[in-house]
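Q: How do we represent a protein-ligand complex in a form that can be generated token by token?
A: Start from the inputs.
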Amino acid sequence: MNDSSLQRGGIRVEIEHIFPIIKKWLYSEKEIFLREIVSNACDAVTKLRRLSSLGEVKDLDLTGAKIRVILNKAEKTITVTDTGIGMTEEELQKYICQIALSGALDFVQKYENADTATESGIIGHFGLGFYSSFMVSDTVDVITRSYTSDRAIKWSCTEAGKYEIQSDYDDDDLLDGHGTAVIMHISEEGEEFLDAYRLKDVLNKYCAFMPVEVYFEDENEENKENSAPSPINDTSPLWLRQPSEITDEEYKAFYHKVFGDFKDPLFYIHLRADYPLNFKGILYFPRISNEYESLEGQVKLFYNQVFVADNIKEVIPEYLLMLKGVLDCPEMPLNVSRSYLQNSGYVSKISAHITKKVADKINSLFNTERDTFEELWRDLKTFVEYGCMRDRKFYDRVKDSLLLEKCGSGFVTLQEYLEQAKEKHENKVYYATDKVAQSQYISLLEQEGVEVILLDRVLDTQFINVIEANQDGVKFVRVDAEIADALQNSDAAPECADAVSAFEKIVQDGVKVEVQHIKNSDVPAILTVSEESRRMDDMMKMYGMPNGGAGTFPLESKLVLNAASDLIRKIDSLYKENSEKAEVLARQIFSLSLLSQRKLTADELSNFLSDSYSLLTML
Ligand code: ADP
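Then emit the structure tokens for the protein with adenosine-5'-diphosphate bound:
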């Protein structure tokens, strides 16, 4: 290849082509323009403060720094003014007239070193935010006066990207000294923002915690407020303050205000991660009164005190979205795609850090305030169980603080339960899912000193799979899944072979009949359904398979006759001489055992009733 055939060039972009793209694609929501323009104004003030603290500027009074957002519906303008650093004509040419040149980046590079760059609190990043104003405007004017100059300049640009600059502009009082005013002449596309309520809403959403006081003014409002106006924002949000200086009341008041929840949170965690993660936040555990209440929490993500979005799934571990809170992550590369965020190491480190802090808090409550922890447990467990199911690391951290509620009363940890059960039923946890429906089984076990755990929420039964998978040898067994060893009498029992024949004739298809010697002679028979087949059936139901998958995976049911029961012995001896009568009795006992295991079907119930009547006539 010779030199003459080699061509070099730079990609050229025509402004008329870029503007429509910005309007359409820069941000998915138009309202973002306000966040961008107000955060530029904030940056302008922050920069000046920074210069002053570096001794670069002197004799400037920075105490009254403020931002005004002025709505003039009649003139269809929204104006944002600041008392910040302003721009010289040269800077304006560079940063505003050239898309994607960021003065924020230049500033940080010039005045900050790598260690303090993230602490500078400067929001701008990519040099595009300003142009979001064109999503809602036909024309945008910028009137600006640099802190280094005593003359203002005016730049005026149409949506086609054509601009004029007027040097030596008389700023007609919009600026009070140095600073910038951005006047947006609102287009049809932005009309909704000319409504004072809508505009104020957007302002409150994004700017409620920005670091410079922001005032909202409605020029067309008839009765201008008489009292001194107050800023719409809180410039030093709670999450940035030292935890040791914050009272419990302040944490709660912040929660009520920001999340509109009138209930107090269960507890909260103040997060403060240092370099290199460098984020701060407060997480609240909301009080969830019942299982059916929405579990959707609200975690607000901030970037240097600027609200970005709620519940960004890519950043916050999914189970934490049940919590409420604020996270301020100045390191977050926000303008990049969400899938990038999801895969970025930074995000997974944030998640890991939060997970650790949440687990630490749970463990410390368990270790130091067990009574309080037990009181909170019902409210807390859905969250904790869900977290454990979603995140193995979380489970590993909190596993020793997980509580199991007893059917009787009180709570135990798994280890405590297993320790107590060691002799009677090693490594086996008996549980009930319905205290009333399974009461017979529960009381049989409790009579023999076996504690039964209550797992009555949908998530509980899924959660036990997690425990079983992670705790070697531990098995959860529902009370109706087997006859516990503790219920059995070790003495040999009569075989009752005839009783078995009688029952075999009358039980439903697939139900096996067996004899065991059960200590409590009052119970003639107990129906058991194997744990595995029932779990399989529950799963089918959960996935909406018809009939709970019946037919595909039959429930393995067993009717256990109690050799110690007089009734069973009676049927055993009656069978040979009057099999018909023996079967009527057997059928009644089977129905009763079915009834104490589950709800009868319509057919079963009508058979049970007619059997009962014929039994009564036999008396
Ligand atoms: P970014 O803020 O990400 O750098 P923008 O497109 O929002 O990008 O702004 C480009 C540049 O224009 C800023 O970096 C800053 O130098 C300048 N600028 C914008 N608004 C103001 C303002 N209110 N006061 C001073 N400079 C501003």
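The chain has a mean pLDDT of 86. The chain has four domains: 3-218, 238-374, 402-487, 490-528+552-619.
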